[in-house]
What we know:
The chain has 643 residues and is of the alpha/beta class. It has helices spanning 2-27, 33-50, 56-84, 93-99, 103-112, 114-120, 122-129, 141-161, 172-177, 182-189, 191-204, 239-245, 249-260, 297-304, 319-329, 335-344, 352-357, 376-383, 407-418, 441-449, 451-454, 461-486, 508-514, 551-558, 611-634, 637-642; strands at 277-283, 307-313, 362-370, 387-391, 424-429, 493-499, 527-528, 530-533, 540-547, 580-582, 588-590, 593-596, 599-602. Strands 1, 2, 3, 4, 5, 6, 7, 8 and 9 form a nine-stranded mixed sheet that branches. The longest helix is centred in the N-terminal third of the chain and has 29 residues, at 56-84.
Amino acid sequence: MLKKLNIILYLSFLVIYLEALTxxxxxxxxxxxxxxxxxSIPFILILFLLTxxxxxxxxxxxxxxxxxxxxxYYGFExxxxxxxxNIFSFNTLGLASNALDFTNIIVDIVLKNIWVVxxxxxPLILLIILNKKLNFERANLKxxxxxxxxxxxxxxxxLFCLFINKNATYxxxxxxxxxxxEIKTVETFxxxxxxxxxxxxxxxxxxxxxxxxxxLPQVEEETPPxxxxxxxxxxxxxxxxxxxxxTNETIKDMLEYFKNSEATNKNEYTGMFKxxxxxxxxxxxxxxxxxxxxxxxxxxxxxxEGFVFxxxxxxxxxxxxxxxxxxTTGLIPTQETLSNWKKLKPTISYALGNAFTSLGYTANxxxxxxxxxxxxxxxxxxxxxxSYMGCGNGMEDLISCSWLPSDVDxxxxxxxxxxxxxxxxxxxxxxxxxxxxxxxxTGNSIALKNIDYVKDLPYSNNVKAYLATQIELDRALEAxxxxxxEEGILEDTVIALVGDHYPYTLTIDEVNELSDYKxxxxxxxxxxxxxxxxxxxxxxxxxxxxxxxxxxxxLLNLFGxxxxxxxxxxxxxxxxxxxLAIFSNRSWVSDYGTYNSGKFxxxxxxTLENENEYIKEMNTLVSNYFTLxxxxxxxxxYKYLLG
Length: 643
């Protein structure tokens, strides 16, 4: 039996080693080690049973197959996280297949992390070395039955451990039963247990639970005297009647939460842009590190004039589609939420296009890549852009759609299509800034096109290639402003721009080549610009923290659009609501400090009387924002509440 134990020891090493790599390279946290090991033991025993189904040769083949499958799965999760800053969920198989279309990007990422790939294959190398020393003969029935019973006992024991510190926001109990957080679940239980929970939730459904017992964060502040009555961005909704007639507990919790939430105030900026046109750009790979007075002068101008947001973040949530969902809906895009957005096509009343068309605006959406990418032929309609053109449904007749298309060409070709249909809201999803960042026609023709502008700069080649792609965006904005001015509508048009995400194929060291301060790879790597510009307004500096989910409500308030701010988790940055930026691993930045991987760091010069209570309340608020965003889409709450 001793030789057979070697198989168990090998399988134990295989699982625990791969879980250790997950903690080192993905969660970057040592927390949850005990529960990870405890919950892994039943899996190890199940693997032991699977390697005892056949005789010697069959069991050997099974061991090799299981080893290879686990290595590839754990390795896949590493690269998925490296690209998208999150753990893969089976909710988003369609989105993952979109990402895999860019095989040159995947190859580039693999080559940059080849030493990590080698580490993941250590168990297979060890299995090959120990091949002749392991006995693959089937164990007797007694040991198999004992292994099965032991797996059940340990699994039941592990469930009792969930009740330790049960009431904490991200307690093991809540993560197991109430909250769907990919990163925190992996951090607490390991990747195998997360995968089991994820598959179960995808197959049988799962409703996250709101924590409506905790009060929202209250921080003592000096409030200036109010000279006139404050009004709020809210509409009249009879929550009491809705609650009395509702039987679904998840919906009842949401109604209760909305009812007791505080709306954002109308303010001196409310209606400032009423009646003006809006051109909104979701800029591929744009980040503030690309802004340079000589290299990208138009970006520099627009980020230093108009409203200047000094503490703005564009958090990565599953690539471009996550950035798009944040900016156009004001909600947080979990993988389940994005999947439901595309699958269910819910009503999103306050989405960018819908909000403006309700005022009689013409709404046009343009994308200079495949129009069906990320199912935009479905999602653009939910955002209110029924007039939507991309490569494959009209754009190919106006510009060259060969990879990579030019943002300049898209602007020049489409401006004549809507310039006379005022007032208009026009939404651009750009693509010229896309990775990979290299100088070749097959990988990045835009970088090659603009190589002369960057070739002598003192940066690495990848960084120079990135800057070259952002020059194309800068030229597109220049063409847009010139075109609007020629048509005599520049002063009546507002330009808004955010990046869909930072250039995540660059390493953090490459990002820091351009940054004026040292960034970490979880929170500060996402710091960026929110351009909000009109040629006629004075420059206004905004120091409050904001992020992508705050863009929509800020625009709604500025354009004087009536909406209920309680129904959007993002908040008007220009209101007096405390600032908050939320990231995919549930870290956050507030006006008081940064909470990152379980550690809170106060900003310089800021004090809090009860820091621990503040952290607890903020974690509850962030968790509820994730839950609300998910359930608003799943239960089509805007149609439910607004018709």
